[in-house]
Design goal:
The protein has 17 helices and 14 strands. Strand 4, helix 6 and strand 5 form a beta-alpha-beta unit. Keywords: Cytoplasm, GTP-binding, Magnesium, Metal-binding, Nucleotide-binding.
Length: about 475
């Protein structure tokens, strides 16, 4: 019998020893996910009948804690969509069952739980194939949706602008196309076998399930129209972005996990007044605001859509025009929720989505400045661990204002600077040139002389050309 060394044990799957074999194979209730209402006024506040849902997850890799954290996030998504979570169940498997996601035996157990709790809907923590979706609905006798459909539903609720609504509709239609199916036998008219046989005959010969074909054709036409509309909106966005590029205004894109505090940070830096809410995907439409460094240099801050684990590919495709803001920025402000139990996973999820965006653009992503937000809600031990994990990160609290001044200074240091240094003596009659240098350049020194204003500044080439007649001590460097 071969003895296992410590190295051999370390190479084993760490999750295999966390539970007994029978517990790992069974549906295991995750405590603390129920959101049953204790006060009827909460129902009046929400102004809707909450859907009663049961959550189901399959734990295929990682630790038990990670699988329960994923299901807890699914519960928050379900609450955001307007549901009441009754139960949360997770099963340990090597991979999801290709037919029913959790296996036929566990489906029968899940059916008993659905009946006992009176649930309306089952939400699975993963993307179901059309076959898995059909099998589960037939056996559970209730509506079944997956994580992707849930996120798309939340996006549909929160989209406000015309562009946002079009992007969400496009993502929903792309998700729906492979999942179209006929309901019952009312659409089945295709004759099978010989005419007059058991599967065909008079009255049963016909065009078949043409409604599916009609629906698919109508959806494809709608998808094509939405793509044209979004392309036209991209042109408008590109024009605005081109204007800023022509003026060489530095841009900063705020990225991060959903509910990490990106909108709060934008408000703290610029006073934008963007909606701030303790909810997932509270804001979807990008917001660009003007900001000024302590030296007086102008730059723009853009708040982008929040990311989440396993962000649906349909959303990445539909929101590509919005996410392009990140690829064209001069600096990425990566906001991390310091109060989250597992911020490392959030950081990895954000960087994974950023990698998908980079795959569609030539060249690398802009440099990244990590900001650990919600310092007021995080404990000191977690902040110390995050500082070690993310060296160079700045700890702030958008709520209390802690660290905001340090963040503004770090932004000013990392923004690209004009590359032409000039020494010029500008007469007082050309005060507009002095104003332009202050607005578009970086003033290194300024002195008021009888002949005019002597400036030492870093400016763009076009500003240097305007100052060429007044340059002293040689030509611009």
């Amino acid at each position: 019998m071969t003895e296992l060394t410590y190295t051999d044990l370390a190479d084993l799957d760490p999750s295999t020893g966390e539970l007994e074999l029978s517990d790992r194979a069974s549906l295991r209730r995750v405590a603390g996910l129920s959101t049953e209402l204790s006060d009827i006024t909460e129902v009046e506040y929400r102004k809707l009948r909450l859907e009663r849902v049961v959550l189901v997850g399959v734990w295929t890799e990682g630790t038990a804690e990670q699988s329960e954290a994923s299901l807890a996030e699914l519960a928050r998504l379900a609450e955001t969509a307007g549901s009441e979570v009754l139960e949360g169940l997770v099963q340990r498997r090597n991979k999801p069952d290709p037919a029913t996601y959790i296996g036929s035996g566990k489906v029968r157990e899940l059916f008993d739980i659905v009946v006992a709790t009176g649930a309306d809907t089952v939400i699975c923590d993963g993307e179901l194939s059309p076959g898995q979706l059909r099998q589960l609905e037939e056996r559970l006798k209730v509506k079944v949706i997956d994580r992707t459909a849930l996120i798309l539903d939340i996006f549909a609720q929160h989209a406000r602008s015309r562009e946002g609504k079009a992007q969400v509709e496009l993502a929903q239609l792309q998700y729906l196309i492979p999942r179209l199916r006929g309901w019952g036998e009312s659409l089945s008219r295709q004759a099978g076998g010989r005419a007059g046989g058991a599967n065909g005959g008079v009255g049963l010969r016909g065009p078949g399930e043409t409604k599916l074909e009609t629906d698919r054709r109508r959806i494809n036409k709608r998808v094509a129209k939405l793509r044209r509309e979004i392309a036209a909106m991209d042109t408008i966005r590109a024009t605005k972005r081109g204007r800023r590029v022509a003026n060489e205004v530095p841009s900063v894109a705020i990225v991060g996990y959903t509910n990490a505090g990106k909108s709060s940070l934008l408000n703290a830096l610029t006073g934008a007044g963007v909606l701030v809410e303790n909810a997932l995907f509270a804001t979807l439409d990008p917001t660009t605001r003007r900001a000024v460094t302590p030296e007086g240099r102008t730059f723009t801050l853009t708040d982008t859509v929040g990311f989440v684990r396993h962000l649906p590919h349909q959303l990445v495709d539909a929101f590509r025009s919005t996410l392009d803001e990140t690829a064209g920025a001069d600096l990425l402000l990566h906001v991390v929720d310091g109060s989250d139990p597992a911020p490392e996973e959030q950081v990895n999820a954000v960087r994974e989505v950023l990698g998908e965006i980079t795959a569609h653009h030539e060249g690398p992503l802009p440099p990244e400045l990590v900001v650990i937000n919600k310092a007021d809600a995080a404990d000191e031990l977690s902040l110390v661990r995050l500082r070690h994990l993310l060296p160079g990160a700045i700890v702030v609290s958008a709520k209390t204002g802690e660290g905001i001044a340090e963040l503004v200074q770090a932004l000013a240091e990392r923004l690209p600077r004009p590359d032409v240094v000039v020494e010029a003596l500008v007469p007082y009659t050309r005060g507009e040139l002095v104003s332009r240098v202050h607005a578009e350049g970086e003033v290194l020194g300024e002195e008021h002389l009888p002949e005019g204003t002597r400036l030492s500044a870093r400016v763009r080439p076009d500003v240097a050309s305007a100052l060429e007649a007044y340059v002293v001590n040689g030509s611009p460097a």
